[in-house]
Amino acid sequence: MARKKTFTQEELYIATHQLMLEDGYDQFNFMKLAQALNVSRTALYKYYSNKDELLRDYLLNQMEDFVRRIETTEWPEIYEEKLSELLDLVFDFSDMHRITTQVQGQRWTKENEHQPDIQKSKQLHQTMFKFIHEVITEGQQIGYLDPEIPSLMLIETIFHSVTLPNRAGLSGKKRSYFMKKLLFKGILNSTEN
To answer: What CA–CA distances, in Å, run from 170 to 117, 154, 177?
Structure first.
């Protein structure tokens, strides 16, 4: 079969996403990516000089999608529904969180802090965090969430729950359902006194 000469940005991001989940950062390379896209490695090097550049662009795209969802969602007035939708959104992007933890070049350092992609990444991250923090704070103020627990600890718990391995092999929806149940109700059986 002849190799394709071109690929779309979406095809590139989908293949990158799959390979990062299957192989991880250390095993991810342009040879495997080119095979997945049925193109030559040279075709990839026309756009990116290395995998870190590609992964930064991919993760920026994912963060932009996350922020776009925050901004375009009609958030419910009922707090419990709002919190549930927020957790669904976080779980919809759980792969992004898992991939981000693998990519060294995504970390912000003194040396790279002025690069445009790092600045944009910081801005998107701040927008995401601000919204999530506002939802958690709202829940504490109305008494739905325990105000004694620091809001940052609640946010960290939500994001760490996303990165837990899925050893049970649950579908995304089932996993989100059970994680919300754990977060909202804990591990104690509610029928017991």
So the answer is: 35, 24, 10
Q: Which residue has the tokens 């999608």?
A: 65
Domain 1-47: CATH class, spelled out: mainly alpha
**For the domain 51-185, what is the CATH code?**
1.10.357.10
- Greater confidence (162 vs 26) lies with 26
pTM equals: 0.83
pLDDT confidence bin for 2, thresholds 50/70/90: very low
The answer for residues whose C-beta is within 8 angstroms of residue 132's C-beta and 6 or more apart is 86, 90, 155, 158
Question: Mean per-residue pLDDT for 159-188?
Answer: 85
pLDDT for 9 equals 93
| Sequence-ordered list of residues with C-beta below 8 angstroms from that of 103, at least 6 positions apart, any chain | 25, 52, 55, 56, 59
- Rounded Cα–Cα distance for residues 63 and 100 (Å): 10
Ordered by start, the domain boundaries in the chain are 1-47, 51-185
Rounded Cα–Cα distance for residues 101 and 11 (Å): 23
Query: Quick check: 60 pLDDT over 80?
Result: yes
